[in-house]
Amino acid sequence: MTELPLIGSAAVADAPLSGARIGVVTFPGTLDDRDAARAVRLAGAEAVSLWHADTELADVDAVVVPGGFSYGDYLRAGAIARFAPLMGKIVDAANSDAKLPVLGICNGFQILTESHLLPGSMVKNDHLKFICRNQVLRVENSNTAWTSDYTQGQEITVPLKNQDGQYIADEKTLDELEAEGRVVFRYVGFNPNGSRRDIAGISNAAGNVVGLMPHPEHAVEAGFGPETAGEFSVDGLGFFTSVLSQIVGGK
Amino acid sequence: MPRIVVDVMPKPEILDPQGKAIVGALPRLGFTDFTSVRQGKRFELEVEGEVTEDVLAKAREAAETLLSNPVIEDVVNVQVVEA
Amino acid sequence: MPRIVVDVMPKPEILDPQGKAIVGALPRLGFTDFTSVRQGKRFELEVEGEVTEDVLAKAREAAETLLSNPVIEDVVNVQVVEA
Amino acid sequence: MTQETTAKFNIDTVANAAVTPEVELPWAELGLKQNEFEEILKVLGRRPTGAELAMYSVMWSEHCSYKSSKNHLRQFGAKVTEEMKKDMLVGIGENAGVTNLGDGWAVTFKIESHNSPSFVEPYQGAATGIGGIVRDIISMGARPVAVMDPLRFGAIDHPDTARVMHGAVAGIGGYGNSLGLPNIGGEMVFDAVYQGNPLVNALAVGVMRHEDIRLANASGKGNKVVLFGARTGGDGIGGASVLASESFDDTKPSKRPAVQVGDPFAEKVLIECCLELFKHSLVEGIQDLGAAGISCATSELASNGDGGMQVELTSVLLRDHTLTPGEILMSESQERMMAVVTPENIKAFEAVMEKWNVEYSWLGEVTDTGRLIITWDGEVIVDVDPRTVAHDGPVYDRPYARPSWQDELQANHFNGSAADSERPATSGALAAAVTELVSSPNMCDKSWITKQYDRYVGGNTALAFPDDSGVIRVDEETGLGVALSTDANGRYTYLDPFQGAQLALAEAYRNVATTGAVPMAVSDCLNFGSPEDPDVMWQLAEAIRGLSDACMELSVPVTGGNVSLYNQTGTTAIHPSPVVAVLGKLDDVARRTPSGWREDGQAIYLLGTTADELDGSEWANLRGHLGGVPPRVDLKAEHTLGEILINASRDGMIDAAHDLSEGGLAAALAESALRYGVGARVSLGEVAERDGVDLFTLLFSESQARAIVSVPRSEEVRFNDMCTARGFAHARIGVVDSATEALEITGVDSLPLDALREAHEGTLPKYFG
Ligand SMILES: Nc1ncnc2c1ncn2[C@@H]1O[C@H](COP(=O)(O)OP(=O)(O)O)[C@@H](O)[C@H]1O
Ligand SMILES: [Mg+2]
């Protein structure tokens, strides 16, 4: 066979047919905002840049709080970003009847826990080092706004990269999360940071808010994401197509 | 200038990975007297002028809201130190 | 059990990015009384049995060698606390 | 922005200097030589003020003035053909060179050292190394897109190596990861010669549209000069406490920080803030603040411009209010930039600063006097021709001579030495030798390091560790991208500095071509010992001569770099280590070639020929031998091999390619198998016979201009024809075979991939946890 190594085209799609607008928040120190926006576009929606200091939430159908080191993560990951004016709006919209879908990735997840949109918290990885690896996750709940395009129990591979990724919560909270099906992702094969019960991601009770440490937005294009035995994973795209189908379906 | 010291420690029931690493390293360096180590944070806030009750109350509030995360940490101390 | 508290702060002349980020955030949250913030570390070492002079000396040594980086940090306090 | 009341100092004004010629100045303590101080007196026609002395002393230091290497470095600018200039948009001399990529895209990259700070405080030293090189890239108008980190530490089992390793790697990761810059490659060499003097080099690469290129110059009378970013503290002036004589204030802290602490968050904000300034064309000229801080930024901006500059130093925002004017001028506080802004753009500039919450202060303006005037509370403390500070520093023709020991060293070949007494010959011994090689400190798997680095951020990383080059997509629509590799072999360069430097270029060039990219430009970081030692100076002169010749022959211009001297412990210098970075271009990164085999049945070809060249090799190193002469350089062959690899990649003739370098064919075969965990059956008898070498030599010799490729069956005829047409030696040595789950080499015991992997991956965790 003479095929070239597989790499997809990242050409920006023309105006998305779906009409869905997904906001991507930028804080000082946010790093993966452009990646999240690319993932949104590749899924077929319009990516709308949101600025942390904005006092109004633009007219968006969903919000991604991307990864990075907001305010350097110096105090605690996400601790300062949580107080941004826009975060207040996002929390209100997520808790409102409209149940705005919100996805927190890595630092975004940490910001959501600091904002008390999601329970528990992240502390330093048990090995105390930054870790970047391709991580297998099991989708434990395919009924959330961000996971409906996956099947229950499906295993996906996406990158993981963080310093403070160890998810902790008290036993009672953990039991509750389990009982209510709010553990959305679990690490498979290898727990990269010592997270309680191998938890990689969780949701709120309504399932519109999901946070996880690994990075689905880095597994959306063949050639630029996690590679196993020469094959690229685009497993992360499902997050963005899931929320898109919910938005379009609901319109 | 007077300073307010705020001490924050990981909650006792929470595993502290940094403390654990230290307690592991101590005996290798010949320190065998310490059975457990926990690592927290110490903040020193400088105040222009006098530390009134009101300023101290503000410091306590900042300690509870920003400087610590009540899910995983306790504020163990808020105290004025004259420099 | 008795504990020894070790406080470590960044040297005054050294940039403290952590304190800087906090001092920048405080006014946005309505805290306007604090002109400078520096963030250091607080260690709590637990001791089995009594804290003798010797144990305290060991703690001081651990503070200088392992718990702090003398190039950028100062040990500002080593102290016994009865729990 | 307000400033606390400025400290009061015993200000040494220009007027005062003119009437007090007898005042004793601490020029020697500031590192100036007698002749240099006399030169300053001549240039000024009077004694310098304290502030002027501070500026000259830092700007005329080896680090800033290149006074020992300048005469030799000129060759990089001189040995350049028209062909080489074709794509060079900005050459040597600016913060970093700029190369045209086509389609309106340009790329800038540069490599620098942060060696001694990284020994003192590995975390912060390495972190600020990344910070500094990234600011060079920003100041060209580019968006930084990736970093790399060539490292050299002491012996792997020395107790101090773990300290440096843990700190430096965490620092590089801590800073680079926080900036959102993927780490796409580097090097890791362990050798006792670096024990007291580790090398931490850092490379950054950035991309921009042609119209966004910015230069460091201050032009246009009346334009304003602004300093922005972090506040100025006492960083980096620890040694210059003699300037305390400027002060009569007892409250001054006796200590200045010996090390700098980086603030990657501040730098990330600075990057975004600068890019926004560029996007709206709000700055005329821009300069990062690195070594020599404000001294460097003001004098370089002014001397590169068309007029002069006037600056009020009390306007500088300070972190430490006890700093004297001289100290402010010398401070190396990180995360600062200086820019020139037209009066019309002031408001818009300030709006960008406020949006990003970046502190700034207006220091002064561009003038037409041709002078750099610095005042303190209105009193003139510096009045100089900026060129004399920035460009016309001393230049030395340091004596150099081939070391007396060089001949003896070169006569001591590995072949036949005591170290070579038990050369593996049986199939079992050969298998053990391969395993020993791939688990050795320098050849082992480096993922202990690279997994602490974010390789994914940005979403444009097409190749990184462990492939031969890092590959970054530049244009998402067309797939246009760049490939980068850095290389150096201190042992080769020690044996022969001229050839060693050429071999460093050859390897980096080959690595870039191996991934399918066309090599375009070079940046280099010359890490050497003391130039005052004629032996070392000879190594430096030979290395520069060799490298510049080779660049010309391969038609890849040097666009920038850095010289790091005095890397030695006592009188013992490190091995001369010219780290060479080559940048190449890929029209479509989808065509990049990875190093691992994947498809069963593909044919494995060895390109190039092998001679008995074990001197300086990893194998000899493992046997504790260093002597003889390095492998022969054949740049014509490198060029042809490059063409073959690039064409084969472009035309879809190969699926995998891996160059042969340290560890030779044995290392390359093992790495290609381990890359995706796919084995192969290899038979080397015919090639050994063709080249007249035994199996051991074929496996472990480090002859240059070689690579292995895997060729799909359907492409074999075309591939063979291409090699034949170019007259390049090529031989089918095996076939990819996943079923074996081993590397099967005829005459060598089977090497199961599991065991090989364990050996390869176990080493760094064993030493570093
Ligand atoms: N310090 C480091 N940082 C990042 N990548 C590294 C580092 N050291 C080695 N690597 C990567 O490991 C791989 C193997 O390195 P090396 O054997 O030096 O490559 P080569 O022989 O092709 O020059 C390369 O992808 C290289 O970029
Ligand atoms: Mg290579």
From TrEMBL, chain A:
Gene3D superfamilies named among the record's database cross-references: 3.40.50.880
Q: Where in the cell is it found?
A: Cytoplasm
Annotated keywords: ATP-binding, Cytoplasm, Glutamine amidotransferase, Hydrolase, Ligase, Nucleotide-binding, Purine biosynthesis
User: Chief location of this protein?
Assistant: cytoplasm
What's the EC number here?
Answer: 6.3.5.3, 3.5.1.2
Where does the record place the catalytic residues? Answer: C106 (nucleophile), H215, E217
Q: Does the keyword Hydrolase apply?
A: yes
Per its UniProt record, what CDD domains does this chain match?
A: GATase1_FGAR_AT (cd01740)
Q: Name one GO molecular function term.
A: phosphoribosylformylglycinamidine synthase activity
Q: Which PROSITE patterns match?
A: GATASE_TYPE_1 (PS51273)
- The reply on keyword Kinase is no
Reactions mediated catalytically: L-glutamine + H2O = L-glutamate + NH4(+); N(2)-formyl-N(1)-(5-phospho-beta-D-ribosyl)glycinamide + L-glutamine + ATP + H2O = 2-formamido-N(1)-(5-O-phospho-beta-D-ribosyl)acetamidine + L-glutamate + ADP + phosphate + H(+)
The protein's matches in InterPro entries, at most eight in alphabetical order, are given as: Class_I_gatase-like, PRibForGlyAmidine_synth_PurQ
Its UniProt pathway annotation is: Purine metabolism; IMP biosynthesis via de novo pathway; 5-amino-1-(5-phospho-D-ribosyl)imidazole from N(2)-formyl-N(1)-(5-phospho-D-ribosyl)glycinamide: step 1/2
Question: PANTHER family of this UniProt entry?
Answer: PHOSPHORIBOSYLFORMYLGLYCINAMIDINE SYNTHASE SUBUNIT PURQ
Role:
Part of the phosphoribosylformylglycinamidine synthase complex involved in the purines biosynthetic pathway. Catalyzes the ATP-dependent conversion of formylglycinamide ribonucleotide (FGAR) and glutamine to yield formylglycinamidine ribonucleotide (FGAM) and glutamate. The FGAM synthase complex is composed of three subunits. PurQ produces an ammonia molecule by converting glutamine to glutamate. PurL transfers the ammonia molecule to FGAR to form FGAM in an ATP-dependent manner.
Q: Which HAMAP family match?
A: PurQ
Protein name in the entry: Phosphoribosylformylglycinamidine synthase subunit PurQ
UniProtKB/TrEMBL annotation, chains B, C:
An example Gene Ontology molecular-function term: phosphoribosylformylglycinamidine synthase activity
**InterPro entries referenced in this protein's UniProt entry, alphabetically:** PurS, PurS-like_sf
The portions of this protein that span the membrane are: none
Q: What is its EC number?
A: 6.3.5.3
What keyword terms does UniProt attach to this protein?
ATP-binding, Cytoplasm, Ligase, Nucleotide-binding, Purine biosynthesis
Which reactions is this enzyme annotated as catalysing? N(2)-formyl-N(1)-(5-phospho-beta-D-ribosyl)glycinamide + L-glutamine + ATP + H2O = 2-formamido-N(1)-(5-O-phospho-beta-D-ribosyl)acetamidine + L-glutamate + ADP + phosphate + H(+)
Compartments annotated for it: namely: Cytoplasm
The pathway noted for it is: Purine metabolism; IMP biosynthesis via de novo pathway; 5-amino-1-(5-phospho-D-ribosyl)imidazole from N(2)-formyl-N(1)-(5-phospho-D-ribosyl)glycinamide: step 1/2
Top-level taxon in the UniProt lineage: Bacteria
Q: Note one Pfam family from the annotation.
A: PurS
The keyword tRNA processing appears for this protein: no
Extract the NCBIfam families matched here.
phosphoribosylformylglycinamidine synthase subunit PurS, PRK05974.1
Query: What does the record note on quaternary structure?
Result: Part of the FGAM synthase complex composed of 1 PurL, 1 PurQ and 2 PurS subunits.
> What function does the entry list?
Part of the phosphoribosylformylglycinamidine synthase complex involved in the purines biosynthetic pathway. Catalyzes the ATP-dependent conversion of formylglycinamide ribonucleotide (FGAR) and glutamine to yield formylglycinamidine ribonucleotide (FGAM) and glutamate. The FGAM synthase complex is composed of three subunits. PurQ produces an ammonia molecule by converting glutamine to glutamate. PurL transfers the ammonia molecule to FGAR to form FGAM in an ATP-dependent manner.
Family statement: Belongs to the PurS family.
* Protein's name according to its UniProt entry: Phosphoribosylformylglycinamidine synthase subunit PurS
From TrEMBL, chain D:
Binding site residues for ATP: Y66, K110, D524, G561
The listed locations are: Cytoplasm
InterPro entries for this protein: PRibForGlyAmidine_synth_PurL, PurL_linker, PurM-like_C_dom, PurM-like_C_sf, PurM-like_N, PurM-like_N_sf
Record: residues binding Mg(2+) 2 = D136, D288
The UniProt keyword set, sorted, is: ATP-binding, Cytoplasm, Ligase, Magnesium, Metal-binding, Nucleotide-binding, Purine biosynthesis
Instruction: Please name the SUPFAM superfamilies in this protein's record.
Output: PurM C-terminal domain-like, PurM N-terminal domain-like
Pathway field of the UniProt record reads: Purine metabolism; IMP biosynthesis via de novo pathway; 5-amino-1-(5-phospho-D-ribosyl)imidazole from N(2)-formyl-N(1)-(5-phospho-D-ribosyl)glycinamide: step 1/2
Q: Where is the Phosphoribosylformylglycinamidine synthase linker domain?
A: 29-67
Catalytic residues per the record? Answer: H63, H114 (proton acceptor)
Report the EC number(s), separated by commas if there are several: 6.3.5.3
Coiled coil regions in record: none
Q: Name one GO molecular function term.
A: phosphoribosylformylglycinamidine synthase activity
Q: PurM-like C-terminal domain: which residues?
A: 221-376, 600-738
UniProt keyword Calcium present: no
Subunit (UniProt): Monomer. Part of the FGAM synthase complex composed of 1 PurL, 1 PurQ and 2 PurS subunits.
Q: Which family does it belong to?
A: Belongs to the FGAMS family.
Name the chain's protein. Phosphoribosylformylglycinamidine synthase subunit PurL
Species classification = Bacteria, Bacillati, Actinomycetota, Actinomycetes, Micrococcales
Gene symbol of the encoding locus: purL
